[in-house]
């Protein structure tokens, strides 16, 4: 006989179940008393617990578990109230490693504390997730069982993360790790007189410069750790957001949230320092390229939410966690709506459980666009969209890695917290949604009614970006800029190289703290000087050797899944690789960047994607336009 749930009290809205993990010393020697049927031996169980009911408004101290369910068809038996209960292997493993030796541990675990087969109980209990995690004394984030030298990775995180925290690395203006490592390498005398700091810098720089087996083992184990499924689980966002404190556990090892936060900052800086060092010595064949982990994006995003003092805007959450996963497609948005600061104002506060994921996605996109958050359109992709749904509704079950032209930067000084677009573009000029002459977009069935200006049409399309294409990317943009489209044998026309260099990277540099600036004139001048020295300098590796890593990084990021193009009036730009001759480029009222659209055989206009078009990103295309036309986007 297996475990059977007893219904929660009639006022189940305020009731939850909690499990008491029995300490190992109190585990029964066998399960002979379990009634599993005649001649059937009881399954061996490593986990024993009891289940009790508590009032959520005044519960006993408990910890909450955050974990991935794992494969549902692979189950292990645990004992609940002396009865067999089938749990996923990952959950059974988590409970086994978390079981104390001498005293009981009180936990809330969704798969056990909620009757998953009760259609009435499950949605009601899920609505209490915020209170459940916020009232827990702590949250344990289970990364999985020990493997791939995870103990080495966790030991590195706890040691160096805690040490960086105590030294103030990354939290004080004069203690930025990248600058400190540069000083250690070039001018050690400029380092602060702090023996602990100098020892720390020497030790951690060895993780980049050394090619020993030990150093490589650390880098590989860190990469393996951040490849685990937990870091892309969308429900973890809400669980992190509502937690008081978190410990990240793997096997019988764990690290604090503070140590992980600071260790992630170290990994990011070490990766940058490694790239600079490789660029400085790129012409020396004796230097061995040793990669430092690059897969920490999801972990960094989770820690930002965990350390946020208040809820964040939905547009920021959607863009930041667009690659996170969930077994139910609706949960990709529902998990974020539970922590969004503006869900009510966007008209998205109602229960969406009765809607299909396609309907939910449409409702969310309409709420965002009609509120002026046009950048959600940057997530749309012609090749990856819901069959039969509007072109302006992205499919969150499949997200391409094309980087949006603008990023969302949090302004934590504002209340509520706002997320501004970086770098600053204003293709529609001073027109703001809701102002005179700039009406709010209207949704009507399958189409959006927008006010826009047709700026230009696509005349020629270049080659889609591919790895190692830096030199050809610049050459094609130059050819598209030239009137006849031919390669130039003499000096380039005035302004050509300037336009090409800005267009190639969508006129932007890397992050500078909380700001992502437009490409500076000094960087353009330096690039021009380098490119004039040798034709081979347009190669990405060689550009890096001249200290232009930032430009190369931006080019490689922004160009993926894009192609260069030229318009009928001779402008150059970069946009989605699906662009064709004859596609139309519009500036939407209130939108910061232009969009390319296509009229189908049914005469309906559909979105292809956002574009960077040199010369109209600051309102030039609408400078003398008094009125806009009304368009329908299907």
UniProtKB/TrEMBL annotation:
InterPro entries the record matches: HET, HetReg/Transcr_Mod
Protein known as: Heterokaryon incompatibility domain-containing protein
Domain annotation Heterokaryon incompatibility: ranges: 62-239
Pfam families: HET, Het-6_barrel
Stretches that traverse the bilayer: none
Species for this entry: Bionectria ochroleuca (Gliocladium roseum)
Cited PANTHER family: ANKYRIN REPEAT DOMAIN-CONTAINING PROTEIN 39 HOMOLOG-RELATED (PTHR24148), HETEROKARYON INCOMPATIBILITY DOMAIN-CONTAINING PROTEIN (PTHR24148:SF64)
